[in-house]
Amino acid sequence: MTLATTVASCLVCDTEFEVREDWEKGEITECGSCGQEHEVVEKSAAGIRLDLAPEVEEDWGE
Question: Which InterPro entries does the record match to this protein (predicted)?
């Protein structure tokens, strides 16, 4: 079974990488070249829009 993919460009280094079309809003992917994480922020018939993933701060259980 082959999963459908679309091509996205890294927002930091412009390297193109594949994003699975079945991903939903909020999922995180990583650029294979620079390691920058991207978040799926919108999914429509026109394609998938990415933004830089938010930095996750440590949760100290407070």
Answer: LysW
Query: In the predicted model, what is the mean pLDDT of residues 47-60?
Result: 81
Say if CB 36 and CB 12 are below 8 A apart. Answer: yes
Amino acid symbol at 47: G
pTM: 0.76
Phi, psi of 20, deg, nearest 5: -65, 135
Q: For the residues 29-56, what does the mean pLDDT come to?
A: 90
Does residue 38 contact residue 28 with C-beta atoms inside 8 Å? yes
Q: Buried b vs exposed e over 5-24: b needs ≥16 C-beta within 10 Å? A: eeebebeeeeeebebeeebe
